[in-house]
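Handout, section B. The chain below has 466 residues.
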Amino acid sequence: MLLIDFGSTYTKVTAVDVTQQEVMATEKSPTTISTNVTEGLNNALDNLGKIIGKDAFAKASKVASSSAAGGLRMDAIGFVPQLTLEAARMAVLNAGAKLINCYSNKLLTEDIESIGQDQIDILLLVGGTDGGNEDVLVHNAKMLSNSDLSIPIVVAGNRNCKEIVLDIFSKNNKNAIVTDNVLPEVNVLNIEPARNVIRNVFMKHIVHAKGMDEVKSYIDNVLLPTPAAILNGAKLLAEGTENEPGLGDLIIIDIGGATTDVHSVSEGLPSRPNIVLKGIPEPRAKRTVEGDLGVRFNAKSILESVGLKKFSEDLGLSPDIVTDWIEKITNETETVPQTLDEKRIDHHLAVNAVRIAVDRHVGRLKSHYTPMGEMFTLYGKDLTEVRTIIGTGGALIHSQDPSSIFQAACYSSKQPNLLKPKNARFLLDSNYILYAGGLLSEQWPDLALQIMKKQLLEVKKLEGES
């Protein structure tokens, strides 16, 4: 079986022998989205065919994930920012999409114009708990129906409005699909139905829109956006199957040139009795994507977050050396560091990308005093008890000191309010196996789990690391 990922930078192929239950080979080639995606695919497949043989190559079934051509781009529209819109945001991210913009309350004409400029592939429309507010969802449906927008619209709001909303969209021949409410009750999250509909729309419509038609003669199906495949792999790794145990609660960090993605699989419930959870409970399997923390396209943003003075002092380098290299890799994103100084700057970018991304992903504590003593309110997930952190992406894979990058994802006594893992082991995905495991799990979950566990390499911690 050939598992293919059309990434924004590289097209990756993993060959799996289902009978022998092992990875036969992996290959990658630059993604050629600007010309024809089949060029990069053919380069990778040609190299792979030489390794596994023509017969095995010809007989293999071929499935793919894709984040090429900008990946899956979505907007979310909701009612209350902290409730239905927050639930919609989680649904979009967990579907593997890049969230471009969020809109709350009743849409204005200027909002419709903004949505048209967002260049999105799918729009998620929510609003109201079941039996709750109907006005906002109906108003927003009318605004969208009367617009020139031609994108698919997934509706996952108040079930009492289902027929009304469908009728509004059908009158103007809009492509609208209605599914279950993402927030049927206050503090009750239900994002899986919307996630599944988004996936189906991606398979039917978006692959065609992204210019991927050419690959149909090469592969059987494009199943998932790449981040969704990785999240599927994360869930399988954590939870296991009936026949194969998983690793337990975990975090996956994917450091890319444009973004740094963080996935966690954990209930994230309070770990101490004096902590009270507030807000919408987050999904057990959660994804966040930080569009300002890519170590190439957004290297300047990372530098700004840290501060040039501190960044330079951390490395003992002059600010000019730092800014010259940052400028170079931002403009020439394929540039590979050659000198020791360049490698150290690249490493420090990765450390800070991970630190900031995980800071944003985990839950936070806010202290307040009561007659019973100090109490804490938890916003988000308590991930202090997570025991496994998995890392992938070129910045980690090619690092000579991956342990210190992993360590940036861990709890620090200097920021006790950020609930990062306190005692986790580090595993490196050096062969980009996570997307492959997510794809393989669609048909062969036991095999996918076995292969992922076998391919992940443990990274030794430095002395003094917890």
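Note. The two ends are 40 Å apart (CA to CA). Compare this with the example in section A.
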